[in-house]
Design goal:
Helix content is 30%, strand content 23%. The chain has twelve helices and 20 strands. Helix 1 (12-22) packs parallel to helix 12 and helix 5 packs across helix 12 (389-405). Strand 12 and strand 13 form a beta hairpin. Among the domains are: 2-43 and 244-301 and 369-405, 3-Layer(bba) Sandwich (FAD/NAD(P)-binding domain), CATH 3.50.50; 99-236, no CATH class. Strands 1, 2, 11, 12, 13, 14 and 20 form a seven-stranded mixed β-sheet that branches. The protein has a four-stranded parallel β-sheet with strand order 8-7-9-10, sandwiched between helices. It is α/β, with parallel strands linked by helices.
């Protein structure tokens, strides 16, 4: 089967590339062995967390790009970053939308008891920004071990309670189970009644981010009606229910727009002729299926996504065998201490690209004419320390697809 564009990778960068392409009227296949890191790590959209909350993104980011021209943002440009974020938001109209406060970073409370800077925040978490300004009650669930309400409450000087669930009084429960139960009116009635009974005049109630998979704003509104207080979600340990919501929304909308999904399969072979990729093979034992395309977007991520692999001596790009920018020796991959003030250099490893996002070798020579890179597999960024991972994925996925399809 032949496509205009094949996107390899199911993370946010691959989803954004596929979205951009289908909205340009192209025939698109998106393929991935898993769901990317959205269901693991993502709750909000970090664009550049190192910017102070007092500086608006459109004032701080252009200067930062000017100071870091090799960064993926430098290749996208501020204008396209804005368009990419707007494109992302178009899949999330109200009531469940992603917002910024004052077009700047905001500090949101996390389940670890810290305040984390981020830019675009889902509607269910926005009220958490005001946590320190109001009396707050924090809710935990017995058996749910990824969030401890009393520990969180101690750190933020508010009150925390742990509710017992009559259905599973002794069992360990998961975030996905809680999210499913939250969508049942009978479950919310029990929770709302118990919370109301234990309230002591609090105006704000924090729940772990499990307020349903499909209609979190409906769940929140119902609980607010039952308790008479404002409710917000607190991002917690993986799995990330908010990240699953993003993936599910993209998948449903892309299929609706005509994209083909091949989920749960990895590319076993690339078919190259000179500087062009003509197709890929997907092994689904005992069958091998071949797919061809005019253009390809490589959005396989770094180590977690399998885009990069390391042996005892070197880091490799796993699919096309592209050269990887990396420290010259393994001894330089990491700092001497894990919590060093300086970032670990292994986190800057990635493939080199030209201004169009096509892969280059170390001398700047173009390697593949019809392959474009996107997402965290790109070199010259420290997304963990910069707090820029989702922003890089959204911006480069959008830009790579546009560059590929606009020639």
């Amino acid at each position: 089967m032949h496509f205009d564009l094949i996107v390899i990778g199911m993370g946010l960068s691959g989803l954004m590339a596929a979205k951009t392409a289908v909205e340009m009227g192209k025939k698109v296949l998106i393929i991935g062995k898993g769901l990317g890191t959205l269901p693991i790590l993502s709750n909000t959209i970090d664009v550049l967390g190192v910017l102070p909350e007092t500086i608006r993104m459109k004032e701080g980011l252009p200067q930062w790009i000017e100071d870091h021209p090799e960064h993926p943002y430098g290749k996208v440009g501020f204008e396209k970053i804005e368009k990419a974020l707007s494109s992302f938001n178009s899949f999330f109209p109200p009531p469940y939308s992603f917002q910024s406060r004052n077009e700047a970073n905001s500090l949101i409370p996390t389940g670890a008891g810290t305040l984390r800077p981020t830019y675009l925040i889902p509607s269910t978490m926005m009220k958490g920004i005001t946590l320190k300004e109001k009396k707050t009650l924090v809710i935990g669930f017995r058996g749910y071990k990824d969030f401890y309400a009393r520990r969180f409450a101690d750190l933020f000087k508010c009150r925390g309670i742990t509710l017992s669930l009559p259905e599973t009084p002794e069992a360990e429960i998961t975030a996905t189970a809680l999210a499913r139960w939250m969508e049942q009116p009978s479950f919310r009635e029990v929770i709302g009644t118990e919370v109301k009974k234990q309230m002591k005049g609090e105006a704000l109630i924090g729940f772990p981010a499990v307020l349903g998979m499909n209609d979190p704003m409906g769940v929140r509104r119902d609980l607010e009606k039952r308790t008479g207080a404002s409710i917000f979600e607190i991002p917690v340990l993986p799995p990330s229910i908010p990240g699953m919501r993003v993936f599910n929304r993209f998948k449903a909308r892309l299929i609706q727009k005509g994209a083909d999904f091949l989920l749960g399969h990895s590319v076993s072979k690339t078919i190259l002729r000179g500087k062009r990729c003509e197709g890929i093979e997907v092994l689904h034992p005992p069958v091998v299926n071949a797919y061809s395309a005019d253009r390809f977007v490589l959005a396989t991520g770094r180590f977690m996504g399998g885009g990069l692999k390391a042996d005892p001596e070197k880091i490799h790009e796993s699919l096309f065998g592209l050269p990887v920018l990396q420290p010259p020796s393994r001894q330089e991959w990491f700092q001497e201490t894990f919590f060093s003030d300086q970032p670990h250099l292994i986190h800057q490893a990635g493939i080199l690209i030209d201004s169009s996002f096509r892969p280059l070798d170390e001398k700047g020579k173009l390697l593949l004419e019809n392959v474009w890179g996107a997402g965290t597999i790109l070199a010259h960024h420290h997304c963990i320390d910069e707090k820029s991972r989702e922003g890089i994925e959204v911006a480069t996925g959008y830009a790579a697809a546009r560059n590929a399809l606009e020639g």
